[in-house]
Amino acid sequence: MITQFAQDVLSGLNATPKTLSSKYFYDENGDRIFQEIMNLDEYYLTRCEYEILETHQRQILDLFIDGTSKFNLVEFGAGDGYKTKVLLECFLNAGVDFRYRPIDISGNVLQILEDSLEEEFPSLKVEGIQNEYMKALRELENGETRNVVLFLGSNIGNFKQSQAISFLKGLYEGLNDGDLLFIGFDLKKDPEVILNAYNDKSGVTRDFNFNLLTRINRELKGNFDLSAFRHFPTYDPLSGTTTSYLVSTKAQTVEIMDTAISFDAWEPIHMEISQKYGMKDIESLATQVGFGIVRNFYDSRHYFVNSVWRK
Ligand code: AVJ
């Protein structure tokens, strides 16, 4: 049997330009390295969003509960729940009637999260959905209860413009009138600050990218020589796109599941994009998809925004 992972890796490396999908960064090692990234001095995103949630938790709750008595709090890609727990604690203390529904493709990640929530917030009603985002949406309630969808961390930034639109359109279709989306965007800012976040001095982000080659070596019988590749992130202030490449430092052939992949000297593999937005970009995105913007919450430096959208 050939897995989706194997298929995607082989077709990506046989394409021009060569490309790998950043969704495969997150194996067990990748999850751990991403935790390290979130603690880096240069990686401001997590701290900015945390500041927003911490500072505005009451106002956020007021919007979620506005005009209703209860809601389902649905989250795409909850991870360890570090940021979400700020809101969960606030909502529980306020005595609000809500249920938390984290969505993750990984049953393992969900179980760990559910266990830690049980421990920290025994009274919280949790019902995880193990599925792909769009498929999980079909399990959402169509009835009385308002759905509030959290999509934090600038995870939308991993999508190209066209993918972001179709993803959000799919989400919009799955929601009911009056449902809310609470979505985090990393904003355009000093290009150097942005580039440094993806090019940290200690090389953690480099290891994060290289980990996918290691994963391919292990899971797909690959023989990537990591020392013959270089990590090269770029930021284009015009498009707002951060792009990460791994560049082959020489002409070489790599074998993956008995398939030979040849690299020219200095040929790149496109690994990941992290899109940065201006407020106008965000407004036009919401409008194109059909959402109305209810309110924007910023950190003190205006590095990041959490935007509340209503269907
Ligand atoms: C998890 C997609 C928000 O793009 O900033 C961090 C992933 N990649 N450093 C991002 C990531 C390199 C991160 N997201």
UniProtKB/TrEMBL annotation:
Q: Which InterPro entries match?
A: EgtD, EgtD_Methyltrsf_superfamily, MeTrfase_dom, MeTrfase_EgtD-like, SAM-dependent_MTases_sf
Which example biological process does GO assign this protein? methylation
Q: Where is the Histidine-specific methyltransferase SAM-dependent domain?
A: 5-310
Instruction: Give one GO term, molecular function aspect.
Output: L-histidine N(alpha)-methyltransferase activity
Q: Is-annotated flag, keyword Transferase?
A: yes
Documented EC number(s): 2.1.1.44
The record's keywords, sorted A to Z, are: Methyltransferase, Transferase
Q: Does the keyword Transcription apply?
A: no
One Pfam match: Methyltransf_33
Please identify the protein, giving its name as recorded.
L-histidine N(Alpha)-methyltransferase
The lineage, from the top, is: Bacteria, Pseudomonadati, Bacteroidota, Cytophagia, Cytophagales
